[in-house]
Amino acid sequence: IKIGIETGNEWLRNQIIKKQLSNDQIVKAFSLARKYKIKTAAYNIIGFPYETEDMIKETWNLNQKIQPDLLVINIFQPFLYTDLWNTCLKKGYLKKIKQLNLDFRRPVLNLPTISKEKLSFYFDKFDDWMVRSSVKTLHPLFYPAYRLLEFFWRSRTKKIFRFSRDLFGKI
Fold first, then answer.
1. Cβ pair 115, 47 in contact under 8 A
2. What pLDDT shows up at residue 105?
3. 59-116 confidence digits (pLDDT tens)
4. Which burial class, exposed, middle or buried, applies to 48 when counting CB atoms under 10 A from its CB (0-12, 13-18, 19+)?
5. CA dihedral 29, 41, 105, 168 (to 10 degrees)
6. Over the chain, what HEC string results?
7. Among candidates 11, 13, 18, 63, which has minimal Cα distance to 42?
8. In whole angstroms, what separates CA 144 from the centre of its chain?
């Protein structure tokens, strides 16, 4: 089951993104899936307009609570002519259309609530979790070896897996 959590902050999810889904519903869905041994994937986005560092931590904590088998993270980029795109232009978060490059790993918005550097830091933190969950879910036989490699060559292993993922697609 793949669920677009988007964010751990209910106000942001319900009022800004307009996705009517409570954290309790998310927790219950993942709990039921685990009970019936159904694999789960949680899709998350950070860097929404109005999002703060504390809201990103809420997203992290919600994912810790639900423990998805696979975690996916992207940095928000507004799609053209949507409400959020209009909001970003009006608030000055997005200066021109040319800023959109559809690389959902790099921030394009200039948010007053959180810097691009902080967004990149949190993206990398989620991305590390995403790589581990990918290996564990998609290649369970390799997971113990991956964890051992990660222990001995922590930074090199991340770079190798990021490189291979970028080169060949999802691991």
1. no
2. 76
3. 999 999 999 988 889 999 988 888 999 999 999 998 766 556 666 778 889 999 999 9
4. buried
5. -170
6. CEEEEECCCHHHHHHHCCCCCCHHHHHHHHHHHHHCCCCCEEEEEECCCCCCHHHHHHHHHHHHHHCCCEEEEEECCCCCCCHHHHHHHHHCCCCCHHHCCCCCCCCCCCCCCCCHHHHHHHHHHHHHHHHHHHHHHHCCCCHHHHHHHHHHCHHHHHHHHHHHHHHHCCC
7. 63
8. 24
pLDDT digits (tens, 9 = 90+) for 11-30: 999 999 999 999 999 999 99
Considering the entire predicted model, what is its pTM?
Answer: 0.78
Give dist(CA 135, CA 129) in Å, integer.
10
Query: Tokens at residue 17, please?
Result: 């993104």
- Strand 41-46 relative to strand 2-6: parallel, antiparallel, unpaired? parallel
Would you say 46 and 60 are in contact if contact means Cβ atoms under 8 Å apart?
Answer: no
- End-to-end Cα distance, the chain: 19
- According to the model, what pLDDT value does residue 163 have? 63
